[in-house]
Input
Amino acid sequence: MIIGSVKKGITRSLSLTGWALIGLSVVLYMALELSSRWEQAKTPGEKNIGVAVLFMLFGIPMLISAAAGLLCLIVSVLTFAYRRFFPRISN
Output
């Protein structure tokens, strides 16, 4: 009984971790959008190296956290489906 609840807890924690990482990715995206608009507004019509720096500062971690969050959610769903459709047989 305890082992079953631990396994369910692992699936829940993967799901919560996935949603938290996707939430972090959304926050980073909003920060990237706001800061790049502010940076571009300082020099309209010109290419600005500050926008590229902002992409490296916010965009790359945003992509990494989004990919990790999606991976956690996919593993959580696959684990749930595996346990649901292929239950363990006890002797």
